[in-house]
Amino acid sequence: MRSVGKTLLVLCGLVAAGMLPSLVSADVRSHALYARGLIPFNNGQWDQAYRLFDAAVGADRSDPEPLYYRGLTQARRGALAAGISDLEQALKLSPSLPHAGLDLGIAYFDAGQYPAAKVWLQRAYEQGDDRFTAAFFLGLTLYRLGEDASALTYLNQANADPDLRPAAHYYAGLAQLHQGNEVAARSELAETAREQPLSEIGKLAQRYAGGGDIRQPPVPLPTARRKPWSLSASLGFQYDTNVVLAPSDSGLKTAQGITGEDDGRFVIGAGGAYTLLDTDYGTVRGAYDFSQSVHFRWTEFDLQGHRLRLDAASKPGVVSYGLSGVYDFYALDYQSFFQELLGTPWVSVAEGDSAATQLYYTARGRDFLRKPFDPARDAIDHAVGVRQYLDLGSPERVLSVGYQFDAEATLAHAPDDQQVSCTSTSQTGGCGARDFDYKAHQLDIGINFPIFSLAQGQAGYLFRLEDYQFLNSRANFQFRRHDQEHQFVVDARREITTHVSATLGFIGILNNSNIPAFDYDRFIISAGVLVTL
After folding, report:
1. How far out from the chain centre does Cα 352 lie?
2. Which backbone phi and psi does 64 adopt, to 5 degrees?
3. Residue 13 in 3-state DSSP?
4. To which H or E segment does residue 380 belong?
5. Which run of H or of E encompasses 190?
């Protein structure tokens, strides 16, 4: 008996010794195959990943992680039923497995099983598993179930994630349309079109939005929920055929500042904006922009600009309104040059889904800080204008036509020995410091349009007639000055990545004056890179 017992003991020991390596090798093999499968999975090689995860599951069916990843891979391959089965089994083995509930909910959503998707996505949202993604898919599921009000609650939360924001705006817009809130819907869809104009979802948003963003005039602020701040930086090269002593958008025409010479320059820009107030009634946003030009030859014409801007706008609607204030300060050759302050109240009226009319008034005060313009060009300008916008089929195709009348009155007075009565425009003595009083009529037309699928383009033409009110001392008091100005603008912007765009532009200015000193042509070609955050 002792020998039999000894023999049985030895046999049991041998069996045990044989079983233990078998159990250990199954666990080790499963983990090794699972780890190898993660590489093709992360590279999107679904078939190769599936074979490795399937082998890992076969080696050890009690391990939830290979089951979880096999389920994800099956879903990626389109085998949703098999994927759902694996994900459910993984959750049974490990109910707290991170992200498994969220992925199961997404799989049910992809399979069109929305009630089941709602249960799992709600659970994932409450547990905090990738909360914004869970909020997005839960909102999307509720939208599919026709629960639009609840869907909007979660889609608005998903806006906090920059990667989800365009799609969240898109589906929020569709949910608003279901509820009959057309204005709010078009605002949401216009945000998607603005953020990703060249993407598929951006094009779909443009199709649904129709005339959506045409309801907003140029100066209102974006009204959809998004991060309160934005930053930008730019670097560009410009070739200018006629370097002029003024910003290209200032409207300042100076005989003393027209070089008649060409030059190249680099232009550096940076800026930022912050939403100071965002309520159900409107938005207030502040911004600052900096610019600096650096010429190759005409370095004394290097111009530095600082702009502070404050915009207040109502929420978009049939009638929108707002107020824009701008303070500009410029330094020439790094010394103070001039400053100006502008205020623009405006109102915009929507006309159906494809048109809007904007009315505005602008008061501008300009103060020159250096001779020869100080004080001869210090002035107050008053302008009133109307602009019509017309949607041409999508938010990226918009036509605008505008008219403006303005009058500028100089503030300076000539010295006593040069002062001449200016009560009539027919006198022969001139008016000294009032050479630059004028009234002007301005017509402009512009269009935004996509350049195939390559870029977003813009083209415009402006005609301006300036009628100076008094005989000009620079023409020996013989006649009043009349200018006819033609401006042509064409530019294109291509989005390279979400935050980086390439820009290309052309500006042509033809100023025809009956006084030769003010007669000139100017053409600017520019190319640059814009970075936005």
Report:
1. 25
2. -70, -30
3. helix
4. strand 379-394
5. helix 182-195
The domain that contains 46 carries what CATH number?
1.25.40.10
**What are the DSSP calls for 125-161, one per residue?**
HHHTTTHHHHHHHHHHHHHHTT-HHHHHHHHHHHTTS
As given in the structure block, the two tokens for residue 76 are 């990626």
Domain that holds residue 499: 229-532
CA triple 354-357-362, angle to 5 deg: 145
Domains in the chain, number = 2
Q: Are 99 and 121 in contact (CB under 8 A)?
A: no
The two three-digit tokens of residue 387, written as one number: 């602009």
Within-domain flag for 9? no
Placement of tokens 């650096």 in the chain: 294
| Residue 233 · residue 269 · CB < 8 Å | yes
> How far is 414 from 434, CA to CA, in rounded Å?
8
User: Which pLDDT tens digit goes with each residue over 163-207?
Assistant: 888 888 888 888 887 777 777 888 888 888 888 777 777 777 776
Residue with tokens 């603005």: 194
Mean pLDDT estimate for the chain:
80
Scan for tokens 């948003």, then name that residue: 205
Q: Which residues pair with 319 in a beta bridge?
A: 349
Q: Last residue of a domain, which of 163, 189, 215? A: 215
Q: pLDDT tens-digit profile of 37-69?
A: 788 888 888 888 888 888 888 888 888 888 899
**Pairing of the two strands 397-410 and 500-513:** unpaired
